[in-house]
Amino acid sequence: MKAVILAGGRGTRISEESRIRPKPMVEIGGKPILWHIMKLYAHYGIQEFIVCCGYKGQMIKEYFVHYHMYQADTTFFLDSQKCQLHRQKAEPWRITLANTGLDTMTAGRILKVREYIGEEPFLLTYGDGVSDVDIGKLIEFHKARKRIVTITTVQPTGRFGALQIHPDTGQVIRFREKVRDDQGWVNAGFMVVDPKIYDYLGDGSEMLEAGPFERLARAGQMSAYKHKGFWSPMDSMRDKAYLEGLWAEGKAPWKIWEGNP
Fold first, then answer.
1. Alpha-carbon distance 3 to 63, whole Å?
2. Fewer beta carbons under 10 A from the terminal one: N or C of the chain?
3. Do 135 and 190 meet the contact criterion of CB atoms below 8 Å apart?
4. How far is 70 from 192, CA to CA, in rounded Å?
5. What is the predicted pLDDT for the residue at 261?
6. Rounded to an integer, what distance in angstroms lies between the CA atom of residue 18 and that of residue 56?
7. Pairing state of beta strands 2-7 and 122-126?
């Protein structure tokens, strides 16, 4: 099964980073968050990726063009303009980097890589969120439900205490620190998709979460896989600092693969 990663957006909410690089190339622990996502999938045996590039997509291509050199010790012979790589190590990944356009909507990006996906089920996620979701169990859940799309859903941990305040007196009636159970379930990405989704994408001019997913839900063709473990997007510099801190402390829940890094 192939994993399709949506990596073409502008990332305007983290503009401090995205003005110089595409959001999936923002680093956590010295590695692009895109790499972290791919390592998660690879842990479950997924070795083939289709990355939907757009904004500053050439930087994603340049990263993988030089990937072997980044991973190895290198000796340069300046007089002969040659180099020798030592202790090479690289994952056995097959990666298709597709230019899906600067302003293409997410539905359109999937249509533009259909020829690389083929007419088979595939995995789909966003290039800016990490999780410890069990991809194997997710796939099993999807197959058992026999619907077109299964999305991983989470209840995000509340970042602030929740106060119930009397509307007239301003008295705090109830205080709860970091509410979780009361929060709704949200789409965390990490989806499993059957090829019948192409019938719901129209001409590709919509965001997936708007028209296509609404139509799938109305048709009873969408399942929710409830994940109660770790998930975090990287929408802001605060999110980046949070993820960096977890990685630096050796407490990154999404690092489920063996080896270092």
1. 19
2. C
3. yes
4. 32
5. 79
6. 9
7. parallel
